[in-house]
Amino acid sequence: MPEADVADLGSIVAAALAHSPAARLLLTTLENEQHIPEEAVRDYYDRNRDRYLTPQALRRGVDPYGTSATPADFLPYEGAREGIAQDLRQAAARYAFFAWLDQARTGVEYAPGHEHPGDPTHQDHEHRH
Is the pTM of this model over 0.70? Predict the structure, then answer.
């Protein structure tokens, strides 16, 4: 996975994905298993009009939610559809992966002195890095 993608996921998830081929395979498998309904893709496109302005509309400062925006100011849905579906599949897969990892960590006990700073059972759990 690209470093930027891993870094955005949080330290525990990033460590699992950076060091475990099995975790990366699980995330990829989860992503391939996600079915995003057409209605969800269309809804995302309609609610996020600012993400689909044409370069010309951006240069003119078109307000995507205002009354002066015309259909010509937006990238066509058909051109944006597959990218939106992929982003939604990736988000759904990450959510499923996070849930799996949280469940897998429930019985973990850290060795004394190596507790994670966010672990509320650790005496100094509120310190920051």
Answer: yes
